[in-house]
Amino acid sequence: MSPLQKVLLILTLLFLVYSVDAKRKRYMKSPRVARIPFSIFGAYDQQQKNPYKGIKNPDFETDFKGEWEVINTDSGVSAMQITLMPTNKIIVYDATVYRTSRLRYPEGVPCVPYIDPNSKQQLEDCFAHAMEYNIQTNQVRPLKVTVDPWCSSGGLAPDGTLISSGGWNDGSKSLRFIRDSCPNCDFTESIDALQEPRWYGTQQILANGEFIIIGGRRAFSYEFIPKEGQKSTKAYFFPFLYETSDLDENNLYPFTHLMPDENVFVFTNNRSLLLNPNTNKIVRTFPVLTGGSRNYPASGSSALLPIRLDDDNATSLETIKVEVLICGGNSPDAFITAEGQKVYLPALQDCGRMVITDPKPVWDTETMPSRRTMGDALNLPDGQILLINGAQKGTAGWWDAEEPNFEPALYNPDKPKGQRFTVLNPSPIARMYHSTSALLPSGKIWVAGSNTHNTYKDVDKFPTETRVEAFYPPYLDPNLDQNRPQILQDSSDKNLRYKARFEIHFSIPKGGQITRDDIKISIYAPPFTTHGFSMNQRLVVLNSGNVAQAIKGIYKVGSMAPRFPGVAPPGYYILFVVHRGVPSQGMWVNIQNAA
């Protein structure tokens, strides 16, 4: 090598060293999360499961048993039926049959004319039976429904529209639509849009984003919700609903859950099956859940356990595990005993749990801390189930229950049997028939309603409730805040597509080394809740990649949207980052329609 070549080689090496060092220093100084010089994916090579596994750290522990706060002393409308909208408003309505509430239409809004069934005279109803509740300000805005939505069903469509179906009397075949996308949006109503009356029916979203409505009083059939302005063309006879109806019915508001293979799990009374909504065929039946009746008016509750796409075995449609939990209810004769004799039988105190996707499914039962009927079962972002509201004796119906169940119970499905329940701090307010609850993006639980009467009563053993409470679950213990993630929404992906990767950026006040096992990304489908059942509710834990730290306390994680719309139908979800059992505040995301 000549002297000139040696000089050129040395200069080249010096230039390369300087360039690498300069780039390293620029990266160290930059706060921009996007400049992470190593892969955050790699978990998606099916031949190489979990390529990066850090030390498995336990969830953070807390002795906090929850806290209650009254956040509105008179919302005006008792919350019989509710849905959380993507605009952070809750749509609330009860029934026009009361012809009264504690909220009047504002000046300039016309009252609703109606014919009094007793006097046969035309009167005017100037009370609001629906409202929009702002969860950020706790203020309400009256809404108008003209045909009765009493004991109806509903669901959030992929575009964010609340579609409500059925009800009573003039509302039994009606559909209601509200988009909540403008300051003065209100319901539009389609009269006689359904083939059969749907009073106490269940509305279930399907994998294509459309809805099926199943059952209702003396409606042993199902049909598909038409598009706005159109009418349903056919009701399909469903003998299963007739077969599961007994003297007290006990098969109303069927528990339904969409499965990954796009079939629908249907549970009524104490029996269940899998229905293919495309072929209208019964795919399979399941064992009887013994112990009593579970559906209205016995009124137990049901929820799917979290669908774990982060499980190494959940690599195909056939290997995704789906497990259902059904809790509480009462004996088959509880309603007629309460109605006829005013004797209130003890509610059931058991939960049944079954893997729907198991080749040979069986029910596994366990005992709750207390008896419960008319309670809600809510999925929480940390993967636990919250049992809240209800009574310990009696059933659903006017004046048909006693002994409110003031104490929520937390169910941890991952703990050994016998150790799964934790009793939480009680509410001071009875939440019985026609009470509701909802998980909010903050992680708090919105709790409202309770009206055991055929009108609004101010003075009674169980007065009509229009107070609204917030319940703080154990994961909102202030001592956990230093470990609580905060999603950086401006730099995180909010529009997801099936089978596509996306990124979430977040911070943690305490900072430190975070491994992949420390973080879970979950998405929650906000339900339509009424009469102890949260329709279309589900929590899906996504498959995520490695966690990268850009600068101290700032992290980036890649995740994969669900591969199948049967796992998570198109529409709006609340996404949470969960750090060793401590969830962030949620961020609204939208999964685009598969088409």
From TrEMBL:
Domain of life of the source: Eukaryota
Signal sequence residues: none
Domain Glyoxal oxidase N-terminal: 80-475
UniProt-listed SUPFAM superfamilies: E set domains, Galactose oxidase, central domain
Ranges for domain Galactose oxidase-like Early set: 484-591
Gene3D superfamilies recorded: Galactose oxidase/kelch, beta-propeller, Immunoglobulins
CDD domains per the UniProt record, alphabetical: E_set_GO_C
Xref: Pfam families: Glyoxal_oxid_N, GO-like_E_set
Protein's name in the database: Putative galactose oxidase
Phylogenetic classification of the source organism: Eukaryota, Viridiplantae, Streptophyta, Embryophyta, Tracheophyta
